[in-house]
C-alpha cells in the first residue's frame, strides 16, 4: 500500500470515529425533548433517528473497507476491473482523448486528419477534363488486353467491388489465376508506392504494368498497344483533344490519361472524415474506442496519415514494413509466410508496401494472397504479427514475472494483450473509414435487383 493511500484511509477512519461520537451526542443531548416532557424523540424515536443518521456513516465505512481490501490485491489482479481512463466518455457524448507521441517517436501528439478532396498532379501530367475522360474510357476498355476480355476495371471494379474484384487473387486473360490480390484503386492516387511490393513509384508507372503482364492483360509490347488504340479514329480524336492536335497515340500518353482519371477517384466522405472535421456523433462509442486503440497500441506507426498508410503522399512515413508472419499463428495459418514480397532472398518474413486502410470493410478478402475473409480476423493477424500481441481475455498476461539470473531478482516483462472486445472495437473503427457513397453501392449490390 502506498503512502498516499495509507494517509487517505487513516483520515477516513478518524472521520468515521468523530462522526459516530458526534452523532451519539447529537441524538442524546441536542435532540432530546426539553423539561422532561414526553416528546417524539423519547425512547424508540431517538434511536430511530440515530439509526437513520448513521446510514451515511455506515456507507462511508463500507467504502473505506472496500478500498482497503482492493489495495491489498496485486495490481495485475484488479487491473481488468478498472475502467481505462483513456476511454472515458463524458455525459455530453464527447470522448476524452489523451495525447500520445506521433509515429515518428517525437513529442508531438498524433494528428488525426481528414483526406483531402483533390490529389496534386505531377508537373508533367496536369489533370484536365479531356484527359480524365480519355483515361476513364481507357480504364474500362478491354481492347488493352490480348484477347479483348480484360480491362483495368475487370480487376478494379469501381462501383461493384469498391475498386477491387472481391477475389482472393485476380483473373487474367484465358482465365489465368494471378498470384496476388487486387488492391483497390480508390485513393490509390495518394500512395507514393504502388503494387503490393511497391515496385511502381507513380500511377503512370503502375498503369504500364498490367497491359504488358502475360498473366494479366497479355499484350506483347507497348507498340502493339499503341497500334491497336491508334487504329481507332475516335481514340485519335480523343488523344488530340487531351494532348494536342499533333499528339500521336503513345504508351506514355495512354498511361498518363489513365493516371489522370485515377487521380479523381477519391473518397473523403467517411464517418471518420466527418468526425475529425468536428461531427462528434459521426462515430459511435465502439468506433471511438477502436480509434483510441488504433492509436495507443501502435497501428498508426505504419497506417499513418489521412490515407492510413506510411506509403502516402500526405504525411509520408516509411512506405515499407516487414510482415512478421513467422511469429503469428493466425498469419501462418493463412499462408502469409510463403510470398515474401520485396524482401531479399532467404528472408524469414516478407517486406511489403503499407496499404491504405480506407474502405477496407468493403475490400475483402485481405492481404497479398487474399487468404482472410473477415475483417476481425485480419485485425487478429496484424495484432499478433506486427504488434506481437497476446489475444486473451486475461489482462494479467500483459505483465509476466521473469527471473533475472544476473540481477538475482524478478523483473516484469510487459506485453500487449488484446481481448475480443478490443478486436471488435478496432474493426468497428476501420468500418468507419468506409465511404458513404461506396457503402450505399455495396448495400444495393447485396440486395440485388428489386
Automatic annotation (TrEMBL):
The keyword Transmembrane helix applies. Keywords: Electron transport, Heme, Iron, Membrane, Metal-binding, Oxidoreductase, Periplasm, Peroxidase, Signal, Transmembrane, Transmembrane helix, Transport. GO terms for molecular function: cytochrome-c peroxidase activity; electron transfer activity; heme binding; metal ion binding. Its main location: periplasm. It comes from the Bacteria. The chain crosses the membrane at residues 6-27, 47-70. It is found in: Periplasm. InterPro entries: Cyt_c-like_dom, Cyt_c-like_dom_sf, Cytochrome_c_Peroxidase/MauG, Di-haem_cyt_c_peroxidsae. GO terms for cellular component: periplasmic space. Residues 130-240, 285-434 form the Cytochrome c domain. Pathway: One-carbon metabolism; methylamine degradation. Gene3D superfamilies: Cytochrome c-like domain (1.10.760.10). Pfam families: CCP_MauG. The keyword RNA-binding does not apply. Involved in methylamine metabolism. Essential for the maturation of the beta subunit of MADH, presumably via a step in the biosynthesis of tryptophan tryptophylquinone (TTQ), the cofactor of MADH. PANTHER family: CYTOCHROME C PEROXIDASE-RELATED. This is Methylamine utilization protein MauG. The lineage of its organism: Bacteria, Pseudomonadati, Pseudomonadota, Alphaproteobacteria, Rhodospirillales.
Amino acid at each position: 500500500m502506498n503512502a498516499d493511500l495509507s494517509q487517505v484511509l487513516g483520515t477516513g477512519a478518524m472521520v468515521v470515529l468523530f462522526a459516530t461520537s458526534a452523532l451519539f451526542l447529537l441524538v442524546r443531548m441536542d435532540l432530546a425533548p426539553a423539561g422532561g416532557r414526553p416528546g417524539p424523540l423519547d425512547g424508540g424515536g431517538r434511536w430511530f433517528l440515530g439509526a437513520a443518521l448513521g446510514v451515511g456513516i455506515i456507507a462511508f465505512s463500507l467504502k473505506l473497507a472496500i478500498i482497503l481490501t482492493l489495495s491489498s490485491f496485486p495490481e495485475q489482479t484488479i487491473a481488468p476491473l478498472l475502467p481505462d481512463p483513456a476511454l472515458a466518455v463524458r455525459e455530453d457524448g464527447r470522448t476524452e482523448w489523451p495525447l500520445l507521441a506521433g509515429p515518428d517517436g517525437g513529442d508531438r501528439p498524433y494528428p488525426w486528419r481528414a483526406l483531402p478532396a483533390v490529389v496534386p498532379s505531377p508537373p508533367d501530367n496536369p489533370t484536365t477534363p479531356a484527359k480524365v475522360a480519355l483515361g476513364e474510357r481507357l480504364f474500362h476498355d478491354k481492347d488493352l488486353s490480348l484477347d479483348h476480355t480484360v480491362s483495368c476495371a475487370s480487376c478494379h471494379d469501381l462501383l461493384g467491388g469498391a475498386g477491387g474484384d472481391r477475389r482472393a487473387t485476380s483473373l487474367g486473360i484465358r482465365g489465368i489465376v494471378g498470384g496476388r490480390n487486387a488492391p483497390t484503386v480508390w485513393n490509390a492516387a495518394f500512395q507514393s508506392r504502388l503494387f503490393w511490393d511497391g515496385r511502381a513509384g507513380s500511377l503512370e508507372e503502375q498503369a504500364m504494368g498490367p497491359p504488358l503482364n502475360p498473366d494479366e492483360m497479355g499484350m506483347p509490347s507497348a507498340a502493339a498497344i499503341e497500334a491497336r488504340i491508334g487504329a481507332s479514329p475516335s481514340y485519335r480524336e480523343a488523344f488530340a483533344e487531351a494532348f494536342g492536335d499533333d499528339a500521336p497515340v503513345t504508351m506514355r500518353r495512354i498511361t498518363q490519361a489513365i493516371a489522370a482519371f485515377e487521380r479523381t477517384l477519391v473518397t473523403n466522405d467517411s464517418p471518420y472524415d466527418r468526425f475529425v472535421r468536428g461531427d462528434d456523433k459521426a462515430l459511435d462509442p465502439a468506433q471511438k474506442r477502436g480509434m483510441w486503440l488504433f492509436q495507443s497500441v501502435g497501428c498508426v506507426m505504419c497506417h499513418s496519415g489521412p490515407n492510413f498508410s506510411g506509403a502516402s503522399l500526405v504525411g509520408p512515413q516509411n512506405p515499407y514494413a516487414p510482415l512478421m508472419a513467422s511469429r503469428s499463428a493466425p498469419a501462418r495459418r493463412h499462408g502469409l509466410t510463403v510470398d515474401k514480397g520485396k524482401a531479399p532472398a532467404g528472408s524469414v518474413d516478407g517486406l511489403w508496401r503499407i496499404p491504405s486502410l480506407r474502405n477496407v470493410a468493403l475490400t475483402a478478402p485481405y492481404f497479398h494472397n487474399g487468404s482472410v475473409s473477415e475483417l476481425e480476423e485480419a485485425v487478429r493477424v496484424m495484432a499478433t504479427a506486427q504488434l506481437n500481441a497476446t489475444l486473451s481475455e486475461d489482462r494479467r498476461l500483459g505483465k509476466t514475472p521473469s527471473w533475472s539470473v544476473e540481477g538475482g531478482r524478478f523483473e516484469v516483462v510487459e506485453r500487449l494483450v488484446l481481448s475480443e472486445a478490443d478486436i471488435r472495437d478496432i474493426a468497428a473503427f476501420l468500418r468507419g473509414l468506409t465511404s458513404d457513397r461506396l457503402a450505399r453501392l455495396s448495400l444495393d449490390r447485396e440486395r440485388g435487383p428489386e
